[in-house]
Amino acid sequence: MSDRHERQLVTTFALAALLLTPQVGEAADKSGKKQAAGKLHVYVGTYTRGESEGVYVSQLDLKTGKLSEAKLAAKLVNPSFVSIHPSRKFVYAVGEINDFQGKKTGGVSAFAVNPKTGQLKLINQQSSEGTGPCHLVVDATGKNVLVANYGGGSVACLPVKADGSLAKASSFHQHEGSSVNPQRQKGPHAHSINVDAGNRFAMAADLGLDKVLVYRFDAKKGTLTPNDPPSVSVKPGGGPRHFAFHPNGKFAFTNNEITLALTAFRYDAQAGTLKELQTLSTLPKGTDTKGLSTAEVRVHPNGKFVYVSNRGHDTIAIFKFNQKNGKLKAIGHVSTGGKTPRNFNLDPSGRFALAANQDTHNVVVFRVNQKTGQLTPTGSEIKVFNPVCIRFMETEDDS
To answer: What residues have CB less than 8 Å from 270, skipping those under 6 apart?
Structure first.
């Protein structure tokens, strides 16, 4: 969408240890009982247009669902997505730019965490090996950061040293090809990368190719190798954007940005293969899709519900999920309380959801009904300019 073009111009089951849906590296949840009664750091990645200066941090009170005022945690150009090390000692952020240290590429920054305040101190930076990096994760061992380059249409793996610093890329893959939409799919656009719960396979959703590419992942060597088969395709013109595994490890989901649809897959964790089960619209019937797009997909920690954000329609679509047959049923929509919702996230307990509204510069808190999946605004929201990404981390008091 237009924000992507703007960016180009700006230059084993460890499921209980993962935050949210079991996407490796999105922060460790090591004391769920303590978290339920305490607070979480909330990191917000942004685009540094207007008043935004980088990555911001707030605290979420898990008793009340109230967010504290956001404070600047680290200055950085376009840290649109962040990821948290399993040790909670380090945070990593993309620099979604096209010119890093004089080279036509983006960057990835490593930060040390102040556990009490959540403030971040820069350790070092490395090239993402492609322009416009827009998504990254830390693998379950904490030894690698995997990054997706939207502009460059590529993925890379950067080893993590003992001090949390990043080494140069140990593995890189340039995607090739195109698809049916001449405006959006003339070439590859790797939009996200996620590692499965076994830490054996990485999934890269590529909007430009209408494919989710699958890589065999070796955490010790820091290598990505195309799987056999190397990908699964979605319906032509869909534009897969983000990806989420189901907590039971048997299913996975991708939201199709261009056609505003959610695709469910059956996942074979031994072979690393995905098989499409179903594709549903993320909008109410009869909605005009012109100018609209999806942004994020999330699975509730209890595995019963799947959520997708709709930009332009400015809602989160709610789906009930049948964990036996893998089928989805649309059960409603809720306004995100702002315009152009990007990433949203559910806290590890699944009690609260936070939505980042890019164009109204606000992050809104919702209470999640554990039985119905419905989202209700708590009345708490904070100001953050151009918010794009939400990530959680335990505070020191809860560790």
So the answer is: none
Tokens of 389: 């990404």
DSSP 396: G
Task: Indicate the number of domains in the chain.
Answer: 1
Alpha-carbon distance of 334 to 357, in angstroms, equals 13
- What is the three-class DSSP state of 397? helix
**What domain range includes position 280?**
2-398
E strand or H helix at 7, and its extent? helix 2-9
Measured at the alpha carbon of residue 195, what is the angle toward residues 395 and 399, in degrees to the nearest 5? 15
Which H or E element spans position 8?
helix 2-9
Supply the DSSP string of 55-114, one letter for each residue.
EEEEEEETTT-PBPPPEEEEE-S----EEE-TTSSEEEEEE--S-BTTBSS-EEEEEEE-
User: What backbone torsions phi and psi does residue 366 show, to the nearest 5 degrees?
Assistant: -125, 145
Residue 369 CB-half CA count within 13 A: 10
The Cα-based distances of 212 to 28, 67, 292, 312 in angstroms read 25, 35, 22, 25
Residue 101: CATH number of its domain: 2.130.10.10
pTM value is 0.91
How many angstroms separate the CA atoms of 147 and 194, rounded?
9
Average pLDDT of each block of 10 consecutive residues along the chain (399 residues)?
40 35 37 61 97 98 96 98 98 98 97 96 98 98 98 98 98 98 97 98 98 98 98 98 97 98 98 98 96 98 98 98 94 98 96 98 98 97 98 75
Q: 3-class DSSP state for residue 384? A: coil
Contact of 316 with 342, CB cutoff 8 Å: no
Residue 364 near residue 336 (C-beta atoms within 8 A): yes
- Distant-in-sequence contacts of 251-255, Cβ < 8 A, 24+ apart: 251/277, 251/321, 251/323, 251/326, 252/203, 253/297, 253/299, 253/306, 254/205, 254/212, 254/297, 255/282, 255/294, 255/295, 255/296, 255/297, 255/308
How many beta carbons lie within 10 A of that of residue 11, not counting itself? 17
pLDDT for the residue numbered 395: 84
